[in-house]
Specification:
0% of the residues lie in helices and 38% in strands. It is an all-beta fold. It has four domains: 55 residues, no CATH class; 88 residues, Immunoglobulins (Immunoglobulin-like); 85 residues, Immunoglobulin-like (Sandwich); 60 residues. Strand 19 and strand 20 form a beta hairpin. The protein is rod-shaped and about 165 Å long.
């Protein structure tokens, strides 16, 4: 006996050189009587038998694995290729019932607002409504992984150190810029208002370096970091560089004077452009002042009764 698989079609097969058997098979038939006609015209044969075997269904579920964050939706699809009328039922592999967030219909399993307890394996079963004798057939289980939602990323914020410094002309100066937790951040320095850096200043991997400061270097500078998510630069607070004025020698007035003995004498001292300079008097060579000479600490030397012991340079 020859066993063949058939689905709602008329087939013809030549069993021998002279004998042809024509069969009309319906889907639900398993045993079919055959009408045999021979080329010899001898009439009908005895009834024959044909067994029809059905290829087993192979339900599929897609995707096999899905990863979502808490609060996101997840969906799986179940289907049988070439069988659009199949019925489907979903269940958890661990046997736990579905909660209100899970919906399954028309072959789809949908989880609305996934939570951590929705993680697990799910199985789809397919049945044929046209053949109640066929048992349900399971598709391979699918896996749903639900993870906690990642906290929002903190914005990139560049930090600078020091925030201010004051140096003398000709001395070096340096500012450092970095982003906490991002050692490979893209950093750049510029003058405030996006001005170019002064001549001689170097931007070196987050460090702003002045090898020898001049008065033209004084000002405020901004460190900026590139944020790849926004595609923009984020600025730091301004860092300020102050440059001391060149030191001015104190001035004396009068530079020389002659007075009568026992008369008062005065000497005034000041620094041009620096009214708050701290001033003090001493004899030349750093010797202390003679008796009865008074230094007020604000640039005035007074002698009320000038004597010969007061002669000299101050």
């Amino acid at each position: 006996m020859q066993v063949i698989s058939l689905k709602n079609r008329e087939i013809s097969r030549e069993f021998s050189r002279f004998l042809r058997v024509t069969l009309l098979i319906s889907k639900s038939d398993e045993k079919v009587k055959t009408l045999v006609r021979t080329n010899f015209g001898l009439g009908e044969s005895n009834p024959g038998r044909l067994d029809v075997t059905r290829e087993p269904w192979r339900p599929e579920a897609d995707p096999p694995v899905q990863d979502v964050e808490v609060g996101d939706a997840a969906r799986f699809r179940c289907f049988v290729r070439g069988v659009p009328h199949a019925d489907f039922q979903w269940r958890r592999e661990d046997g736990q019932p579905f909660d209100a967030a899970v919906d399954h219909s028309a072959g789809y399993l949908t989880v609305h607002g996934s939570q951590l307890h929705h993680s697990g394996r799910y199985i789809c079963s397919a049945t044929d409504p046209q053949d109640p004798t066929q048992p349900p057939i399971d598709a391979p289980a699918v896996q749903l992984n639900v993870r906690d939602r990642a906290p929002p990323r903190q914005p990139l914020t560049p930090q600078v150190d020091p925030i201010q410094q004051t140096v003398d002309p000709g001395q070096p100066a340096k500012f450092r810029c970095w982003v906490e937790g991002h050692p490979n951040a893209q950093l750049r320095w510029s003058g405030r208002g996006n001005r170019p850096l002064p001549q001689g200043a170097r931007d070196n991997r987050g460090e702003l370096v002045f090898p020898s400061v001049t008065q033209n270097d004084a000002g405020e500078f901004i460190c900026s970091v590139y944020d790849p998510e926004s595609g923009k630069y984020v600025d730091s607070p301004p860092a300020r560089l102050d440059v001391n004025q060149p030191a001015q020698p104190p001035q004396i007035d009068p530079p020389e004077q002659t007075v009568h003995e026992n008369t008062p004498s005065y000497i005034r001292c000041w620094v041009p452009g620096n009214p708050n300079a701290r001033l003090s008097f001493a004899r030349r060579g750093g010797q202390p002042l003679p008796p009865d000479a008074y230094d007020d600490g604000r640039g005035s030397l007074r002698i009320d009764r000038t004597q010969t012991i007061h002669e000299g340079e101050y």
